[in-house]
Every structure is written in C-alpha cells, then in structure tokens.
C-alpha cells in the first residue's frame, strides 16, 4: 500500500470528547490564527475546554487543532500537554464499554507520543515495510531517516556510538511532508546488546529541505 493511502484511511470514531491541553499560551500556530480557528470551529463543542468557573474558554487544544511546532532538535511536540476528556463525552457512544475502549485507546496513543498509531492526530502506521516506498523499500527508507537522527545524536553525545540495526515499525503524519515516528533496534557500542530506540524526523515535501532530525532516544527514556 502506498504511503498516501495509509495517510488517507478513514476515521471511524467520534473525536469530540477529548482535548489536549496546555496551560500556557499557544505559541506555534499555523497561518490560521487562534481567533480565526475559534470562529470557524464554533459549532464543535469539544474544541475548547473550560477551566474557569465563569465558563470562559481557556487556551486549550484538542486533537483537531493541536498544532505541531516547527521542528527543533531534542524538542518533543508533546511536552507540556496533557490529555483531557470532556465530562459529557459518554453521550457520543452507544455503551459504557465502547466509551471505555475509546478512552483506553486514546490514552495509550497519547502516552506513546506518536510512536503508536493515533488516527485522531492523523498519525498512521506504515504497513508492509518490504514494499516499495519510491525507489527503495519502506524499511530502507525508514532506516535512512533513523540513521540521520542517530548521526545527530552521536554528534551531540560523543560518549556513545549508536548504530541502527533493524526497523521495528514506523508511523507517519502528513502535513508539509511527512513527520516520521520510527521505532528501531540499535547498538550503543560495537558488539553491544540490542536496545530499542525511537527517532522522530521531518521529511519535507518535494525534498525542498533536507531531512530534519527531531529526536533520538532509547524507548525506555520516553517521558
């Protein structure tokens, strides 16, 4: 399956009951301002959550308008945010079981910060890794991207010499290119034991910019 087909998979769950909130002012917005977004989404009751007793909307954001900041090395876009569920979200579901499963899925996806499938944030799995991506297989493509992140890590921490051994899985988020979330096995020094690592990078559309490494870390160190 082509990556574009992965990214266009239809969403089947209701997303109006969950928000990702940050108490500080939102800094990195897209071209649409927060005020414009609030007006355009005014009919979506799940878009803004309420913090104050006076019912005023706080600068919180849900999956629909959670804007990723410009990529920066060793800065995870999930930092500073927390997952919240609206108190009346149960009304969108036919049973308590369905709602509980929905909350469990979204909580697990959010806690894994993009490294597990999260269709509510348009993060989709890259399937069939041995199929062609463009001129290489998806596995080779992900290996190349992970290697860029590892190179940056080794430049920052000269005490290690991490190398990519094999790809475990990969996710992508479309938008101006591909934001890639890669889980892979690595060695931190020659003949060392295998360690599960995570890498995040931005591959810009049209290759107008080189691949930008965002982070690279042992999976065990994920916050």
Number of helices: 4
In N-to-C order, the SSE pattern is: HEHEEHEHEEEE
User: How helix-rich are the residues, as a percent range?
Assistant: 10-25%
Main sheet: strand order: 4-5-6-7-8
Total domain units: 2
Class derived from helix and strand content: alpha+beta
Counting DSSP E segments of at least 2 residues, the number of strands comes to 8
Q: Please compute the radius of gyration using only Cα atoms.
A: 19 Å
Overall body shape: globular
* Strand fraction: 15-25%
Mean pLDDT: 75
Give unreliable regions as ranges: 1-19, 22-65
Characterization of this structure:
With 223 residues, this protein is of the alpha+beta class. It has two domains: 11-117, no CATH class; 138-221, Nuclear Transport Factor 2, Chain: A, CATH 3.10.450.10. It has helices spanning 3-7, 34-40, 96-111, 138-156; strands spanning 18-21, 61-62, 82-85, 124-125, 163-174, 177-187, 194-204, 212-218. The strands form two sheets. A five-stranded antiparallel sheet has the order 4-5-6-7-8. The protein is globular. Mean pLDDT is 75; it is low at 1-19 and 22-65.
């Amino acid at each position: 399956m082509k990556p574009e087909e992965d990214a266009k998979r239809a969403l089947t769950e209701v997303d109006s009951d969950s928000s990702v909130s940050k108490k500080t002012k939102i800094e990195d917005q897209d071209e649409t301002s927060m005020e414009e977004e609030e007006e355009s989404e005014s009919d979506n009751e799940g878009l803004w959550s309420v913090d104050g007793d006076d019912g005023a909307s706080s600068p919180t954001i849900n999956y629909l308008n959670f804007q990723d900041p410009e990529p920066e090395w060793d800065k995870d876009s999930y930092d500073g945010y927390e997952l919240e569920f609206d108190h009346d979200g149960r009304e969108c579901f036919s049973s308590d079981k369905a709602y509980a499963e929905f909350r469990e899925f979204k909580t697990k996806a959010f806690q894994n910060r993009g490294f597990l499938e999260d269709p509510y944030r348009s993060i989709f799995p890259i399937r069939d890794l041995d199929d062609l991506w463009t001129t290489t297989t998806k596995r080779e493509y992900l290996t190349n991207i992970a290697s860029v992140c590892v190179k940056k890590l080794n430049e920052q921490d000269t005490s290690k010499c991490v190398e990519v051994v094999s790809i475990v899985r990969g996710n992508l988020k479309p938008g101006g290119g591909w934001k890639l979330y890669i889980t892979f096995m690595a060695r931190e020094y020659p003949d060392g034991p295998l360690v599960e690592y995570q890498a995040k990078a931005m591959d810009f559309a049209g290759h107008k910019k080189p691949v930008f490494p965002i982070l690279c870390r042992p999976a065990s160190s994920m916050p």
